[in-house]
Inverse folding.
C-alpha cells in the first residue's frame, strides 16, 4: 500500500469514544456505507449501530454490512431479516453451517473491523460491534483502540472494502456480481499526518502487517512499546525484539492479564522467560480485558488495528491496521498506553518468573508446541 501525506488520523479509545464517532459519521452519510466486523452482538451497542444503518438505508444510502461467519455466528436471524427488509445488504464471510464439524478453512477468518462512509472518512481498529462491558469478568471497559481517518489514505481503505465485498458476494452467489460504480475519491488534504493502510489477505498482502512491524522494530533507536491482546510471535519477530533490546532500545510488551482464552495465555507465557532474560520488559494488564492491537516505536511510527501478533492473525486471518508516521500521534498513543500501564498493569519480574514451578513451565511449553504443531499440520505455517 502507498504511504500518503495530508491525512488527519484521530485516535479513539475503546467503544466509549469509537461508537459515538462511528454512529455520527453514518448518520451523516449521503451515498454509501461499508461496515465490516468480526463480532456483531445483539446488545445495546449492536442495536444502536443497527438503528443508524437502518436510518441510513431509509435515506437512500447504499449500506453494506459484512460480518465474519464464525465470529458473528450467533447473529440473530430476526435482526438479519429486519436489516435486509430495511434495505441493508448483509453478507457473511465463510459462514459456518455447524460449529461441531471442523473444517480446515475455519481458521481463515475475516478479523477486520472497518468502516468507510461516503469514501471520505474511515474507521480502522480492533473494536467489534459489542458493548465495552460485554466481556469476561469485571465491570470495567474493555481496553481497545481505533482510529478515524480522513484524507488520501481513505482511497486505499475504500478499495479494500469494495474488493472484499465483491469477493464474498461472488462466492455466495456463485456468479460474478454486476460492478457497482465506486464513489469519486477525494484526495484533498485533510491534515498534516503521513499514514498508510496495512492489510493482510491471502494473495498480494500476505505479510504486509508483519513486515511493517519488523521494519519499525529494526530501525528503533530508543523505545518500542507494544500492546497486544494475543501475543505469540514467530522466530523473526522474537529475534527482532531481543536484538533491539540488545542495542539499548527500551522494549516493553503489554499483554493480557485477564483472558477469554486461557490455553492461549498459557502458550503465550511460555515465552516470558525467553524475553525477560534478554532485556524485554513484560506487563500484564489486569484492570479489564485488554483487546488492543497497538504499538509505538520511538516518536515516529505507531500502528492501530485488528491484527494480533500470533500465527493466526499474521498468517491466516484477514486483518487491517493503519500505520501513522507522526510524532504527535505517536506521543498521544504512547501516553495513553503508559497511563493504562500505570493504573492497570503489573510488571512481570524476571527473578519471580524464573522461580515458576516446573510443571507450569512444562504446561506452557506443551501448549505452545501444540499451537505451532497445529499450524504445521494444517500446512499453513509460513516461513518465519
Amino acid at each position: 500500500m502507498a504511504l500518503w501525506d495530508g491525512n488527519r488520523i484521530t485516535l479513539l479509545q475503546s467503544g466509549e469514544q469509537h461508537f459515538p464517532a462511528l454512529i455520527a459519521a453514518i448518520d451523516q452519510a449521503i451515498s454509501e456505507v461499508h461496515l465490516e466486523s468480526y463480532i456483531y452482538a445483539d446488545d445495546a451497542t449492536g442495536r444502536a449501530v443497527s438503528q443508524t444503518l437502518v436510518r441510513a438505508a431509509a435515506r437512500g444510502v447504499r449500506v453494506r454490512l459484512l460480518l465474519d461467519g464464525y465470529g458473528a455466528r450467533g447473529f440473530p436471524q430476526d435482526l438479519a431479516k429486519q436489516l435486509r427488509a430495511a434495505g441493508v445488504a448483509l453478507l457473511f464471510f465463510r459462514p459456518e453451517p455447524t460449529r461441531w464439524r471442523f473444517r480446515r478453512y475455519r481458521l481463515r477468518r475475516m478479523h477486520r473491523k472497518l468502516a468507510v462512509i461516503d469514501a471520505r472518512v474511515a474507521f480502522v481498529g480492533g473494536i467489534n460491534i459489542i458493548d465495552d462491558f460485554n466481556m469476561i469478568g469485571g465491570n470495567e471497559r474493555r481496553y481497545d483502540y481505533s482510529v478515524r481517518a480522513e484524507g488520501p489514505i481513505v482511497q486505499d481503505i475504500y478499495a479494500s472494502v469494495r474488493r472484499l465485498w465483491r469477493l464474498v458476494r461472488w462466492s455466495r452467489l456463485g456468479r460474478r456480481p454486476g460492478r457497482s460504480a465506486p464513489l469519486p475519491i477525494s484526495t484533498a488534504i485533510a491534515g498534516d499526518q503521513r499514514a498508510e493502510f496495512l492489510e493482510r489477505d491471502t494473495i498480494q498482502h500476505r505479510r504486509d502487517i508483519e513486515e511493517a512491524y519488523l521494519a519499525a522494530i529494526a530501525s528503533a533507536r530508543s523505545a518500542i512499546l507494544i500492546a497486544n491482546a494475543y501475543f505469540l510471535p514467530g522466530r523473526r519477530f522474537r529475534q527482532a525484539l531481543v536484538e533491539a533490546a540488545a542495542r539499548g532500545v527500551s522494549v516493553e510488551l503489554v499483554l493480557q492479564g485477564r483472558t477469554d482464552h486461557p490455553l492461549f495465555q498459557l502458550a503465550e507465557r511460555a515465552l516470558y522467560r525467553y524475553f525477560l532474560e534478554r532485556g524485554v520488559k513484560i506487563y500484564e494488564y489486569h484492570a479489564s480485558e485488554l483487546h488492543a492491537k497497538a504499538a509505538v516505536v520511538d516518536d515516529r511510527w505507531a500502528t492501530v488495528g485488528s491484527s494480533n501478533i500470533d500465527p493466526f492473525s499474521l498468517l491466516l486471518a484477514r486483518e487491517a491496521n493503519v500505520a501513522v508516521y507522526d510524532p504527535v500521534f505517536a506521543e498521544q498513543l504512547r501516553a495513553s498506553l503508559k497511563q493504562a500501564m500505570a493504573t492497570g498493569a503489573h510488571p512481570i519480574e524476571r527473578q519471580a518468573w524464573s522461580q515458576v514451578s516446573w510443571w507450569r513451565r512444562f504446561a506452557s511449553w506443551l501448549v505452545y508446541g501444540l499451537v505451532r504443531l497445529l499450524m504445521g499440520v494444517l500446512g499453513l505455517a509460513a516461513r518465519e
The longest helix spans residues 154-173. Residues 202-377 form a domain with the Endonuclease; Chain A fold (CATH 3.30.870.10).
